[in-house]
Amino acid sequence: MIRSAITVSIVPESKGGPFVFHGGLEAGIASAASTGFDGVEIFPSHADDIDGYLLRGWLEKYSVQLAAMGTGAGWLTRKLRLTDPDPLVRAAGRDFIGAIVDFAGGFGAPAIIGSMQGRHGDGVSREQALEWLRAELNQLGPRAHAHGVPLLYEPLNRYETNLFNTLSEAAAFLETLKTRNVKLLADLFHMNIEETDLAEAIRINGKWIGHVHFADSNRRAIGLGHTQFSPVAKALIDVGYDGYVSGEIFPWPDAETAATKTLESFRKFFPR
Ligand code: LER
Ligand code: MN
Question: Which one is catalytic: 154, 160, 194, 195?
């Protein structure tokens, strides 16, 4: 069954970014639940930021699942990345992600590697960057597997990384890993910039997709941009996608409207 989720950020520096709820973790979970979402995707500053006991209580109280957890604050607030020329920065990046893999895994949820993948350049060749990324994914994939969840790797648009920008390029790279436990995150905003045909990219790479960021062309809620979403939804259904579509979008015009609009679109395109 395809499930709905919405983003909750507890990182002050991420205000202005594509996260819907920013007003505290319990308040975000409560708003997600009252809007009608199945899950929340949390963006923490660090795994240790969240009291797991409190989180478990709130998820139970409001009857929502933890859909996924982002690791991008490692880059945003600490400038950590898996392909940095400095080995100490790479190691700190791995520890930062590993802690989120374990924390989210305890809730049956996957961690996302998006911004933390970094880029080549600054004296680092593409081959070297990919070798480092491959080694890290081969470490972190089995770590996630120990929790019974995949690790999510997200191709980003060209302005955010020069490693992989499309699903097919990223899937070909995942094919070269030793671990089979890394899945793709298909972010429809990045795909709108990079893919020739969103629905076709989903059909070709369907077996790799483990999570979807549900965003219109302008990174607003689905329905507030110009993406033709019907063929995209049909492709997700046809490939048997069975995960979350999660609103990683700007809180535009405000968080409540963005969340409501996202859920309306979800119900329209994925009727139960
Ligand atoms: C993370 O999911 C993402 O999509 C990046 O653009 C960072 O915001
Ligand atoms: Mn994304």
Answer: 154
